[in-house]
Amino acid sequence: PNPHLEGVLAAVAYMSTELADKPVKVAVAGIGFIGQVHIESLRRLPGVEVVALCHSSQGSAEAKAKAWHVPRAYADFGAMLAEVKPDCVHIATPNSLHYAMVKAALQAGVHVVCEKPLALTVAEAQELLALAKEKKLVHAVHFNVRYYPLVREMKRLREKGDLGRIHSVLGTYLQDWLFYATDYNWRVEAAQTGDSKVVADIGSHLIDLIEYVSGLEVVEVMADFSTVHPVRKKPKKAVETYSGKLLAESDYDDVAVQVEDQANILLRFGNGARGSVSVSQVAAGRKNDVNVEFSGSKSSVAWDSTRPDELWVGLRDTANRVLLRDPSLVDIETRGIISYPGGHNEGFGDTSKQLYREIYAAVRQGAQPANPSYPTFAHGLRELLLCDKIVESNRKQAWVKV
Ligand code: SOE
């Protein structure tokens, strides 16, 4: 049995057979950088309509709704749920708002797709997972990096035994949009972001990816954080993710920063394998770069998100090779998340579309399947637990068991 393959095939069937059905109504909360990615990707699914959005004030919500041609705009999330009665809601607001919004949506009987991190604490995430299960609603977390086809292919190569026994994992996730002290965003404020910034924001993608591809569980962590800008310049007006770096040197307040700009983490896995990951939002020139390498007893694989259609396969006794993303060259499961023939590039914007295809196959069925192929609140909870242990390890400067 291959639960992923079942999910993928269900998504493909949904794309080809459900077009005539009543459209699925979706609402999106939080229309910053990533909320806009959600809207664009949803609009690439046949039979799915974005019928309402929610943003921080009525004025900003209406401006976003006008710009995005979304019929209804709200500042009050509860009112949106009650009046619009969406089938599914996507939550892309700052981290500190996720818990209350997810809870309200589940209590209203609405399926939920939430951004990572699912909540601010492990206890909150446990409660949300339990509630989603009790209500039998579809629950998913936007770990979209899993949906690059060659990431799926690495997982399939591992599952088919082509890598052998994995003994080492390396990973980096580097960005530079918070490089200067004048680069500002709600993510640098602990009250909005939680106890961790870079680990929760992008480390969560990387570690989710590592466990997903390797099939291994992290059992122990040793972390070392640093805050490169302990004082940042906060613009007097609000700025969205990524847009702060376009501001002029003008009206700023100095604010003290508690959360980390970069982190180095050693990992130990259940099978004895070792790993090392580095994450940073102050790495000049690295806009949004994920790199992973898995070394096994038969071969190695390495993938770089800036060249997403190429997978490096390392071999000891024959020439290394580069696998190109083409439906004819990959495993049948990987084929399910490729839309275009090789040479017709697919990238960041396609990952959410492929993820939503699998999620909306479940939304159409009206309940979470027994073995969802997509990342669920259980994975959101797992990343919060790991993040907690990583924060604890940095604080103690010691190995911490998960
Ligand atoms: C900001 O670092 C951010 O938008 C992340 O929150 C997303 O998860 C990532 O996809 C791009 O960068």
From TrEMBL:
GO terms for biological process: carbohydrate catabolic process; deoxyribonucleotide catabolic process. Residues 151-301 form the GFO/IDH/MocA-like oxidoreductase domain. GO terms for cellular component: cytoplasm. Residues 24-142 form the Gfo/Idh/MocA-like oxidoreductase N-terminal domain. GO terms for molecular function: deoxyribose-phosphate aldolase activity; nucleotide binding. It catalyses: 2-deoxy-D-ribose 5-phosphate = D-glyceraldehyde 3-phosphate + acetaldehyde. It comes from the Eukaryota. Its EC number is 4.1.2.4. Keywords: Cytoplasm, Lyase, Schiff base. Belongs to the Gfo/Idh/MocA family. This is deoxyribose-phosphate aldolase. The chain holds residues 246 to 647 of 647 of the full protein.
